[in-house]
Amino acid sequence: MVCTYEIRVFSDSPKFSLSWIVELAHEYVKLLYKGDYALYNFFFENRDALFNSFVFIFGDHGGRYGDEAETSFGDSEQNNPFLYVIVPERFRNTKLDEQLRQNSKELVTHFDIYATLKDILYHQPASNFTELDFKPLDESMRGSSLLRRFQDGMRRTCKTLPIPFQFCICQYEKTEVTDESLKDSLGQFVVAQLSSFLERQNVSKQCEEIKLKEIEAKQYLSSKLAHVDNSTSFFEVTFEVAAPAKGRFQIPVRKELEQLDLGGALFTRLDTYGKSGDCMSNEDLRPFCTCKKIEIHSTSPSP
Length: 303
Prior knowledge:
By secondary structure, the protein is of the alpha+beta class. Strands 3, 4, 5, 6, 7 and 8 form a 6-stranded antiparallel beta sheet that branches. It has a two-stranded antiparallel ribbon with strand order 1-2. Strand 6 and strand 7 (259-262) form a beta hairpin. It folds into 2 domains: 51-167, no CATH class; 174-285, no CATH class. The protein has helices at residues 4-9, 36-45, 72-77, 95-103, 110-123, 180-200; strands spanning 55-58, 83-86, 174-176, 212-220, 232-241, 248-256, 259-262, 268-269. Pfam families: DUF229.
C-alpha cells in the first residue's frame, strides 16, 4: 500500500497501490460503516495528490454471510461485486469518460479490470488516452479495457466472456425440489465430492470427516441453459455438513441420464469459518476443512 507520504512527496512519479481490506466486513457486512471515516479522510486529505490518478474501488464478490445474504437480493449480489472507477480530473467529460460510462452498462468481469490496468500502463499513454478503438490486451482474450469500445459484434454474456455457470448473474427461474429421494441423492453426491476434493489435496487426514446434515435443492427451470434437453437437469444444491465438521456450502449439480456431475468448479462457503481451518497451510483450503482437534495427553513422571 502506498502511504500518504509517498503520494505527496513523489507525486510526479508513477506508482501503483493495491489495498485489499478484508477483515473489515468479510464476515460481518454490518461492520462496513466502521471504515467510512478512514476512507473519507484518506481521499479528502490526498485529493490534490490524487487528481491525476485512476482509482478503482471493487470487491472480489458480494456478501456471503449474514441476514442480507439470505435474501433474494443478497443471493444475486454475491456474484455481482461492487465496482467504481474514478478517472483523472483532466479526462472527465471527455470521450474516454463517455466510453467508460457506456461500458458500465455492459456485463463486466475482473478480467476487464486487469486489461484496463494493462491499457493504462502500456498502451494509452502513447496517445494521451485518446485511443478508444478495441484492442486485444491479453492472449486469452478474456478481458477488454474499460477505456475502449468492446469488441464489435460480440454480445457480452456469461457464455462469451466466459463466466462459469455458478458465478453467472443471469436470473434463471428455480423451484424447490420436494422429491426426498432426489434430495438425498444430491446431498450424498455433493458431500462425497467435497470429501474427494480434500483427498485430492492430500489434507483429508487433517480434517474432520464430511457427512451430510441438511440439504436444500432448487431446480433450474429456464430453457435458456446451455445444452439442456429433456434428459438433463440443473440444480442449485445448498447443504450443511454434520458435526464435528462444520460448514454450509453451495454448488450447482448437473443430472444427465441419471448421472450426477458437478456443475461448478468450486464449492461456495456460505457461513463464517473463523479459525476452524487454521491447520491448512494453503489459504484456499481453509473454508473447506474443519481441522481435527489434537488431544495432548500429559503423564506424570514416575516417582
